[in-house]
Amino acid sequence: MQTKKNKAPRRYIVIFFLMCLAGLYILGKALYTMLPPESDYWKEVARNSKTSQIDANRGNILSCDHQVLSGTVPKYSLFLDFAVRDPDPKIEAKTRAFRDSAFRVDLDSIADGLARIFPEHNAKWFRERLLQGKKVGRYSWPIYPRKLVTYVEYRACLELPFFREGKYRSGFHGDEMLLRYRPYGELASRTIGTLYQDTTGQPKCGLELSFDSILRGKPGTEHSIRVRNRKVHVVDTPAENGHDLLTTIDINIQDFADRTLRSKLKEEGVQGEIGVVIVMEVKTGDVKAIVNLTRGKDGDYYELKNNAVSDLWEPGSTFKTASIMVALEDGKINLNKTVNCAPGTYMMHGKWMKDHNWRKGGYKKPLQVKDILGYSSNIGVSRIIDEAYGDNPTAYVEGLHREGVGIPLNLPFVGKGEPRVPHPKDNNRHWSKTDLPWMSIGYVTMLPPISTLTFYNAIANGGKMVKPRFVKAELKDGMVVREFPTEVIKERICKPSTLKDIQYCLEYVVSGGLGKKAGNGGRLFKVSGKTGTAMFSENGRYGRKHMVSFCGYFPSDNPKYSCIVCIKHQQPYPSGGGQCGPVFSEISQYIMSRDSVRSAALAADSNSVFVPEVTKGSRKRAEAIVEGMGLTDKRLDVAESDTMSLTKVPDVTGMGAKDAVYALQKRGMRVRINGFGQIVKQDIAPGSFATKGNTITLTASPKKF
Question: Of 273, 358, 560, 703, which has the fewest beta carbons less than 10 angstroms from its beta carbon?
Answer without folding.
Answer: 703
